[in-house]
Every structure is written in C-alpha cells, then in structure tokens.
Amino acid sequence: MEISNMMSGDQVARLQNTVTRFNAELNEGRPATQTLGKDDFLKLLIAQLQNQDPMSPMEDKEFIAQMAQFSSLEQMTNMATEFSQLSRTLSAGRALDLLGRTVELEQGDRTVTGRVSEITGGDFPQIMVNGVYYDQTQIRRVQE
To answer: What are the strands of the beta sheet with 139-143, ordered from one edge?
Structure first.
C-alpha cells in the first residue's frame, strides 16, 4: 500500500515540506554524502515524532527499536574513532622502531635501500632514507 493512500493530501504536503526543510538543513554548510551519521538519525527520529498522527502514535516497540538502532550507531561511531586513534598510535610506534635500521623500499619499479635517519611525526609519519622522505607503506624489508 502506498503512503499517499494512507495519508490525506494535507498530511502528504506537510511531510514533503518537512523532508525538504530537513534536507536543506542537512546540506547547509557541508558537502553531500551518501551516509547518515548519528546527528542525521536523531534529526529524522525527532521529525518523525513531531509529525506522527496523534490518533495513532508510534508503537512503543517501534520507538524502542529505533532508540536501540541509534544507540548501536553511536557505539559503532565511537569504536571507529577509537580504532582510528589506535591505528595512528601503532603507525607512529612502528615508525619509531625503524629509526637506525636499514630498510628496503619500493618506489615504483625501482628499489631503494638505506638507513632510516629521521622520522616525521603526525598522523601519517614518514621515514627519511638517503635524504628523501618515504611513506611507511613503501617498505618491503627491514634489516638490523
């Protein structure tokens, strides 16, 4: 059954206005994406609650299920953030471990061998070999 058969013309128009306004708010000041974040989910839930039919409000089960989804989304977002921080920390630690060691790097179709003399900081540390900075992903072999 289509939604337009279940709602009056006035309700459909209000819903379309709400969706249009919501989309405008989402796109305000940020680039369009294909994914929804936890703020977007919460805005949708609030819009749904504000525009529900008072004669047949949302079922308790539906509301609880949506809140559980929101909670899961928030926890997954938090875990992704923590994993990113862990990855950066491990990458920095790996770079420090290379200091003073001889490495073999792959640069296109040629191989560069030399001692790691310097390491940059930041989220994506780079190593200096023979006076040139390289990304850690280019390392093919590490020697004592």
So the answer is: 132-135, 126-129, 110-119, 102-107, 139-143
Which tokens belong to 103?
A: 């490495």
Domain ranges of the chain: 3-90, 99-143
CA angle 101, 89, 104 (to 5 degrees): 25
Q: How far apart are CA 140 and CA 135, in angstroms?
A: 11
Q: What does pTM read for this prediction? A: 0.48
Handedness of CA 128, 130, 132, 135 (dihedral sign): negative
**Which segment, 12-21, 36-45, 55-64, is predicted with the most confidence on average?**
12-21
Q: Which of 143, 112, 108, 141 is nearest to 128 (CA)?
A: 112
DSSP annotation of 58: P
